[in-house]
Specification:
Two copies of one chain form a homodimer.
Chain A lengths: L2 E7 L15 H4 L3 H9 L1 E6 L9 H8 L4 H4 L3 H8 L9 E10 L5 E3 L7 H12 L10 E6 L4 E7 L29 H22 L2 H8 L7 E8 L7 H5 L3 E4 L3 H9 L3 E3 L12 H11 L5 E6 L1 H7 L3 H21 L5 E6 L3 E2 L6 E2 L3 E6 L13 H4 L5 E4 H11 L9
Parallel strand pairs in A: 1-10, 1-11, 2-15, 8-9, 8-10
Antiparallel strand pairs in A: 2-14, 3-4, 3-6, 3-7, 5-6, 11-14, 12-13
Helix pairs in contact in A: 3-10, 3-15, 5-10, 11-13, 12-13
Amino acid sequence: MLKAILVIADGMADRPLKELDGKTPLEAAVKPAMNRIAENGVCGIVDPISPGIPPGSDTATLAFLGYNPMEVYSGRGALEAVGSDVEVLPGDVAFRCNFATVDKDLVVLDRRAGRISNEDASLLTRSLQEIKLKKSFDASFLFKNTVQHRAALVIRGPKLSTAVSDSDPEVNGKKILEIEPLDKRPESVRTAAIVTELMTEFQEALAEHPVNKERAKRKQPLANVVLCRGAGTIPKITPLRKLYGIKSACVAVVSLIKGVCKVAGMDVISVEGATGTPETDYLAKAKAAVQALNTQDFVFLHVKATDVASHDGNARLKTEVIGKIDRMLDYVLKNIDLGTTHLALTADHTTSCETRNHEGDPVPVAVFGPCVRRDSVKEYSERACAEGGLGRIRGPDLMHIMMNYLGRTKKFGS
Amino acid sequence: MLKAILVIADGMADRPLKELDGKTPLEAAVKPAMNRIAENGVCGIVDPISPGIPPGSDTATLAFLGYNPMEVYSGRGALEAVGSDVEVLPGDVAFRCNFATVDKDLVVLDRRAGRISNEDASLLTRSLQEIKLKKSFDASFLFKNTVQHRAALVIRGPKLSTAVSDSDPEVNGKKILEIEPLDKRPESVRTAAIVTELMTEFQEALAEHPVNKERAKRKQPLANVVLCRGAGTIPKITPLRKLYGIKSACVAVVSLIKGVCKVAGMDVISVEGATGTPETDYLAKAKAAVQALNTQDFVFLHVKATDVASHDGNARLKTEVIGKIDRMLDYVLKNIDLGTTHLALTADHTTSCETRNHEGDPVPVAVFGPCVRRDSVKEYSERACAEGGLGRIRGPDLMHIMMNYLGRTKKFGS
């Protein structure tokens, strides 16, 4: 049975950096396994969305799973909530939330409420979930804390809209924002009113809460407000199982990525020691992915660490992380059946260590396996792969190409 | 006057094959003329539909004639009927049919009724065409046998639909299938009812037919049922003449390809000795194409033999056929005016000698002629062309590129 594994290193692609003598971190890294994949495979470059457009991790992951993000993307909030095991039903509108600290003028002092502990956040959450929305709203809500200050909010009821603004100013030192409808539809006006009302009720409940009294005693920042952003609904997508007749799983730790995978109908595999940081247990992830291939047709292995180093502007660390990912890939290559398994390696987007942002530059890709037309590329990097036999493709093409190798794409015509 | 010739070898592209020491049939073949086209031309790879999606010969041919198959494709039945000189009008729904042999439980014993002779099939057809549909159906039909067991059925009347299933189980040993509407629209329900009724009437007429009595005496399989599949209508496309102001013709023998070309308004040139098999008269086809260029602006020369060898899984034969096509191209190159004529060489899809199926891998293309920006590719093959100056394009792009060289594409903007 033909199988496939897709390895995505988040934000691994970069631009030439002065501090690396004009090399990209990929070009500067020691990466024999990646080069082996390139040398034995077919290479190319990919625009996850389209040339020049910086992708989010959500839209890029949707694209690399074969979905057209321009058609199906419906905001981050719901994907992140689903990835945190919060139930989101079709029609629900979900937000990403933070417990935060504000002063009496509602200026944000700490967007993370001193990275509040899971214990404190859970106690606060229990109280907040007991609040009842006014009957006239004809709506209910779910509020769930996830890790530290992070939480998810789901609004449920008829006629809701994602066209509402954020209350989160995204930086400390600014006043929290009014939640406003982004268009004139009654659904948007109604949704903004519901969330505004709820945020006010949350503030009142938090102000008097025993947990905050304890935090004040301990000189810890109060968690006296909940900020919300990224209104979203579940994208309407057909699961991979139905599209290609495959069993699929992902090995990922980031909620957002797990959310996208769940929405695509994939099993989500948790790995002890996987943290989403440069200190993650790379080998444990590799072992979990290899093991998953025993029972799955398609496994997606996601590593976040490269993006973390990029957003910190740390090119040296990014280069080291790439070396660690290379050793992870070495394990994968040595433990899968290369006669029946296709392995694709790419990045979900370019993250520049200089701008510290996602950029719209293409990312390198290499696909190794029994069906590929091997090309003459010998190195895995942004520039070397650009000379490969795949040419320049779009994000969703990669999944279609892999499913074609597996004999899983449907013929169009006869 | 600038002219162009498009040569398509059906299913010529392939994957690296073990029995050819990891080469594709194109890489293994002796092909000096093809290499001359590549060396003097501009090369690239083409996704007839889109990356990873296996094309049918119908959708691929539509694409290579410049039409977007995702927009215009409307089923195979009508294209094949038109290609067999059966009249199909807009609104008609047409099917591909087979005379077949079934047992008393309607299990198919021979999908080809012993490859019934044209004579027997014609006699049966004459009787079937005399059947009258019930008045309440407000519809009529045309039934025409083509070659051996093959036939076309056209249903004509108001409010018909192509959303009906096939009765043909596509393999021997299975029961014939109920023809069912594929959606709930009244047109689909009505069309399924008409075709079901007609197939029952056909069965009754065939059961008692003198031809079948004679066949029974001769111990030949009875042609006691008509199987139908591939409901389709004429695609709504603008003829090439109107799009580009050109006179165009095709040299092809396969009904489906001829049908697509007719629908595009092209003249269809018949060639004695052209058979659609590896034993076809390649040189006769070349001569016909060269001669057609005297009076036409654009000639499409189609060769089926490569696909036949691929579906048989015969890599050696495919390699030989490519050699024969090369000699055909040698004749073309030596007998056209290379100062005024552009020649494009491609395959309509990849057909793998290993899987014996159409695959979604890209196909090579080379365009030779006075206007091209010659690149450094020196060999015509899947991998060599991938390094060419055309990059990776889509099926319809090739026609637009050729018509651009001929000064026939319209400026967009001013």
